[in-house]
UniProtKB/TrEMBL annotation:
Any GO molecular function: metal ion binding
Protein name: MerR family transcriptional regulator
Keywords: DNA-binding, Repressor, Transcription, Transcription regulation
UniProt domain HTH merR-type: residue ranges: 3-72
Length: 291
């Protein structure tokens, strides 16, 4: 069972702490326990209820009305809203609730509804990536526990692997891209998705996965020469991104190195000549078609 501070609730729900206190006093939307020093402590139920109320409130429901709905009725109204797959924020919030509840059926239902309407690639880019960015912020803040993150990651991973399996025979381009995560980097979702895009465009793929030492990359490239590399930086690396990119660029000066991830978005330095920031699926597909 999770225990959350009011700051945790603010980070996860997007509702300001001041507003949470008002809703608590006026409508009893959440019912915190208190520490001996009178500090509020919130439960999983408080967090899930606040998320549901916040979603409905942001989509036109008056707080004075939804405040008195039961948890079951809140869930029903949220499920109805999710049918409108044009509203990305609702689906991201619904995935958050499903993750917190460890509710596989709800999680898959939200994703499947979006895939039917948007298609697989648009769902990953427009729904899953914003969701994962938010989870990453909460993870760094300590507001999401490991079980919830692993639960969510494995469900997404399963869908990506199925999509990749469907492209395994599609090798119409005589070029190879090696996909890997640097040593210490464990978040594979983005890497899997971009490897799927490469396979879909007919490229040969060597997928090495997470936490791959630099020396192993050098050894593998001697066995199977890559026409390009792709890697993601989600977590803050142990060494500076400058040093890591310089090392790869100097080791493989004539090979394009594509990079992606939250740390790359925030990077303000100059990239080596053969290193390219891939900012979206569309950019990557365009690059692949020109290689």
């Amino acid at each position: 069972m999770g225990v959350y501070s009011i700051k945790d609730l603010e980070r996860i729900s997007g509702v300001k702490a001041h507003t949470i206190r008002i809703w608590e006093r006026r409508y009893n939307i959440v019912e915190p326990a208190r520490t001996k020093t009178n500090i509020r402590k919130y439960s999983d139920r408080d967090l899930k209820r606040l998320l549901n109320v916040s979603i409905l409130n942001n989509n036109g429901y008056k707080i004075s009305h939804i405040a008195y709905l039961s948890d079951e009725d809140l869930g029903k109204r949220l499920a109805y809203l999710c049918l409108d797959t044009k509203k990305v924020d609702i689906q991201v919030e619904s995935l958050m609730v499903a993750m917190l509840e460890l509710d596989e059926v709800k999680f898959n239902s939200v994703l499947n509804q979006s895939i039917i309407k948007r298609g697989f690639e648009k769902t990953v880019e427009e729904v899953l990536f914003p969701f994962l960015d938010r989870v990453g912020i909460l993870w760094q803040a300590g507001s999401v526990n490991p079980a919830q993150e692993h639960f969510m990651s494995n469900l997404i991973r399963q869908k990506l692997i199925v999509a990749i399996d469907n492209q395994m025979e599609n090798q119409k381009v005589d070029k190879r891209i090696t996909f890997f995560l640097d040593e210490g980097e464990l978040h594979e979702i983005g890497l899997l998705f971009y490897s799927f895009l490469a396979r879909k465009e007919g490229y040969k793929v060597i997928y090495l996965g997470s936490n791959v030492p630099f020396e192993d990359i050098k050894g593998i490239d001697q066995v199977r020469k890559a026409d390009a590399f792709f890697t993601c930086f989600v977590s803050p690396p142990e060494n500076s991104l400058d040093k890591i990119l310089k090392a790869y660029s100097e080791e493989f000066p004539n090979t394009p190195i594509f990079i992606n991830g939250m740390q790359v978005k925030e990077y303000e330095g100059d990239l080596p000549d053969n290193v390219m920031h891939i900012s979206s699926a569309e950019v990557f597909v365009e690059v692949l078609r020109k290689m």
